[in-house]
């Protein structure tokens, strides 16, 4: 298919509906973006950032990749975090994982997936790091769910280690890093209660994960 006409049709309808609801919506947004949140989530099509918290375009700055990873040397996620923290001055960074994450699943088995296996290697490291508690789980589904949660906690820790986040805290700015998980089975978000609001708390979270 050379052109995806049906998507352009849907786009026209959507833009018209938005304008009908709020005639100044696009005019206002085109002047500047001032989102209050940075969302770091999975690429999974079932976990769209803005929709699941019922917000509008302009309200969340988003970075998504397979299994919502924040890798210390990944220029992509680091650039997003730097821009969000230093230029947009967001006050909240949300790392949101989800149960049933294919990236996490890929890291639990021996099946080969190609290039992606290198990316999910970071989750294999998390598995190794937490293998005692993971192996103590009653069954595979419980282990899978727990690894999805541990992965979020590790990424919260990684966000807290970035120089931009630490600089923000050192200069007394309010900046909160949250770890959430989404259930694709019922559409409900859960706060994993690992929120970090300063350097001291980031050390405490290290002990938790
Ligand atoms: Co996923």
Architecture overview:
The protein has helices at residues 5-21, 25-31, 49-52, 75-87, 102-108, 116-119, 121-129, 131-135, 140-161, 163-170, 199-208, and strands spanning 37-42, 60-65, 92-98, 176-183, 188-191. By secondary structure, the protein is of the alpha/beta class. The protein has a domain at 32-100 and 152-204: 3-Layer(aba) Sandwich (Beta-carbonic Anhydrase, Chain A). A hairpin with a 4-residue loop joins strand 4 and strand 5 (188-191). Helix 5 crosses helix 7. The longest helix has 22 residues, at 140-161. It is globular and about 55 Å long. The termini are far apart. The relative contact order is 0.13. Bound molecules: cobalt (II) ion.
Strand residue content: 5-15%
Please, how many helices? 11
Fraction of residues in helix? 40-55%
Largest sheet: 5 strands, mixed
CATH topology of the domain at 32-100 and 152-204, what is it called? Answer: Beta-carbonic Anhydrase, Chain A
Average of per-residue pLDDT values:
95
How far from one another are the termini? 47 Å
From the 3D coordinates, which CATH architecture of the domain at 32-100 and 152-204 would you assign? 3-Layer(aba) Sandwich
CATH superfamily of the domain at 32-100 and 152-204: Carbonic anhydrase
What is the β-strand count? 5
List unreliable stretches of 5+ residues: none
Structural class: alpha/beta
Strand line-up across the major sheet = 2-1-3-4-5
Q: List the ions, cofactors and other small molecules found in this model.
A: cobalt (II) ion
The CATH C-level class name of the domain at 32-100 and 152-204: Alpha Beta
Principal-axis shape: globular
